[in-house]
Amino acid sequence: MSDLLFFVEVSLAGLGSGALLSLTALAFVLIYKATRVINLAVGEILMMGGYFFLAFAAGWGLSPWLAIPAAIAGGALIGAVVERGIIRRMLGESPISVFMVTVGLGSVLVGIVELVWGTDPRTLPDFMGTAPVFIGEAYVSRKIAISFAVAGLVIAVFLALFRFWRGGVALRATATDQAAAYSCGINVPGVFSLAWTIGCGTAAGAGVLLGSIGGIAPTMGAFGLSALVVVIVGGLDSVAGALVAGLAIGLVEAWTGTYLGGEYKLVFTFGILILMLMIRPYGLFGTKEIERL
Amino acid sequence: MLGMTKRTFLALAASSALVAAAPAFAQDDGEIVMGGSLPLTGVFGFAGVAIEAGIQDYLKILNEDGGIAGRKVRLAYEDTGYQVDQSVAVFNKLTSQNRNIHLYYGDSTAFSRTINPELQRRGDILMAGASFATEINDPQNFASQFIAGPDYTEMFSILLEYIAREKPGAKLVFVNSDTEFGRDPIESSTARAKELGLEVVEQIITPPGAVDVSTEVLKLRRARPDYAIFHGYILAPLPEFMTQAKQLGLETKFMGTFWSMDSSIWDSVGEVADGFMGVMPYRYYYDEEEAPMLKRIREMRPTYQTTGYMQGFLTAMLMGEAARRTLDAGKELTSQNMKAALNSIEDFDTGGIVGVPISIPGNTVPVGRIYQYDAAAKQMKPVSDWISLKE
């Protein structure tokens, strides 16, 4: 196998991994964009998505194609309940209070999973098939290829929705100026609820994809932290930023992991994070606004 | 102070202290307490729950048979969440509440290392735990501790000896997580492989919590090893490695160490898991070979018990044996006496928990056997005899 082909394969694998990061980052962006809340429980909602899929597909014996939307709906329901029951009551509180509530929410979700499903790592029922995918001569893992396609599609849909759908425009308007959005007749609390519902549903969907690759465990929420790096690099309120930064970090991790060693992956990833915070703290595509906590 | 006189305050403080100390005073002087910083939740929770069950069952058997020199043994434990600060806090709490604490189960390498000076200072506790770290296999510096099985380097040695017998000159790849746990045996095992005429053609390190391993699989394909030995993982990312390796037509055999060897975690993986091999220091719950203690366990618990259970069970058994030999010799239950008693264990019959009689010449039980997962039977099947490194 030539070095060039190997490099292409490594790069494709990196793009695939990056797409998963982008999809998870999208959940952060959707919620932050509308509500200015950094939801640190995204990783744990992603984990819940994996466990919901396990419950529906393996526990209830549903077809994976029914279990996937059910898992996404489960994640969305958590988002809706949390927004309506907790976050909305905290409107006007300091950002750090809301931030800490999401940290606590993550711990509560981990506890629920450990109580209901136990602490053993689990494998999800396969729904992607096992036949390898080749692009030309280059091998790509089937699951990674599918994840890449799904992430690309989802992000394209969201970009289009923000541009053309009334709800998307309302969300952008709310993000820009809540008072002005109210005065234009936009149901701002409804927009908040919508953002949390869609954001958490997206995280749950990412959890199904991620769980199908690496299995699920109560600790898989840690993936959310990697996605948070992507969000900060891409811009907290930029959907396109989540895509570009996710793919870029996926590529960097693949190259460093392959040519320098796996121990350098996190060094480079967090090195990029520090560099970005120093030179462009609002991210590649984020709104130039710095909020000091 | 709210109208309270100094005398009243002191009286109240004294009575509160007495109430707080009541559990310690209420203890039966005859009992021996085994303390436990157990990881019942968190990343290692799956093992902690099983370990606790294994220890409790052995102590139940021990106490039903009369205890140790007529003294009952009780497990006093709390959850640590696999956090070292919590483990230390639990240790301090349990040792202050239980005067007769002489045995202790720790949950991690970090805890074993952190608490070691305190164990040395106290001199009245013998400790073992969930860690198989090579550094604990040091009778000089870890004089109050032991490992109820081979350490990680010894596990690799057992795997390497098996490979050297099966396929002399085989090409190997080590895949390790970038954690203290994962990196433990790399250097020593690379040297051992060389001694056995095996070639380590690649070392792959994965970041902690890595999920997608596509790039690492590409490195594996480039190396085309006969065997890939994974260490520092429980399950993920092994199934994905194996799936992609099969997609790529690799004939590599995949191996793991103790914490990857529970058959129940492989059950849901399905056909891909078929053929996964690894080193196991204990018998499985369902092993059919003659083993009176396994029979007793199956009577107590009719459903499958995991490898963590066996580890907890054997640890309690060896601690109990060390305490028994110490008391039988008319000595006090000090760390030094119990450790000497532990090291006097030679050709000890574990009732079949380990398939051969065991000896503990130092800080480990350097014995293991290679098992292979049979996906159809959903069980690990032995593919080698018991391999003892001291032979």
| Low-confidence spans of chain B | 18-27
Adjacency order of strands in the biggest sheet of chain A: 1-2
The chain-level structural class of chain A is: mainly alpha
CATH architecture of chain A: Orthogonal Bundle
Write down the CATH class of the largest domain in chain B.
Alpha Beta
Query: What pattern of helices and strands is seen along the backbone of chain A?
Result: HHHHEEHHHHHHH
Structural class of chain B: alpha/beta
Number of strands of chain A: 2
Helicity range of chain A:
over 70%
What is the third-level CATH name, the topology of the largest domain in chain B? Rossmann fold
Distance between the termini of chain B: 73 Å
CATH architecture of the largest domain in chain B: 3-Layer(aba) Sandwich
Mean pLDDT of chain A: 89
Overall geometric form of chain A: globular
Tally of individual helices of chain B: 13
Strand percentage of chain B, roughly? 15-25%
A few lines on this structure:
The complex is a heterodimer of chains A (293) and B (391). Chain A has 293 residues and is mostly helical.
Task: Characterise this structure.
The complex is a heterodimer of chains A (293) and B (391). Chain A is an all-alpha fold. Chain A has one domain: ABC transporter involved in vitamin B12 uptake, BtuC. Helix content of chain A is 73%, strand content 2%. Chain A is built from 11 helices and 2 strands. In chain A, a hairpin with a 2-residue loop joins strand 1 and strand 2. In chain A, helix 5 runs antiparallel to helix 8. The model of chain A has no long low-confidence stretch (mean pLDDT 89). Chain B starts with 5 loop residues before the first helix and ends with a strand. In chain B, helix 4 links the parallel strand 3 and strand 4. In chain B, strands 5, 6, 7, 8, 9, 10, 11 and 12 form an 8-stranded mixed beta sheet that branches. A 4-stranded parallel beta sheet of chain B has the order 2-1-3-4, with helices on both faces. Chain B is of the alpha/beta class. Chain B is built from 13 helices and 12 strands. Chain B is 41% helix and 17% strand. The longest helix of chain B is centred in the last third of the chain and has 22 residues. In chain B, helix 12 packs across helix 13. At the A-B interface, helix 1, helix 5, helix 8 and helix 10 of A face helix 2, strand 6, helix 8 and helix 9 of B.
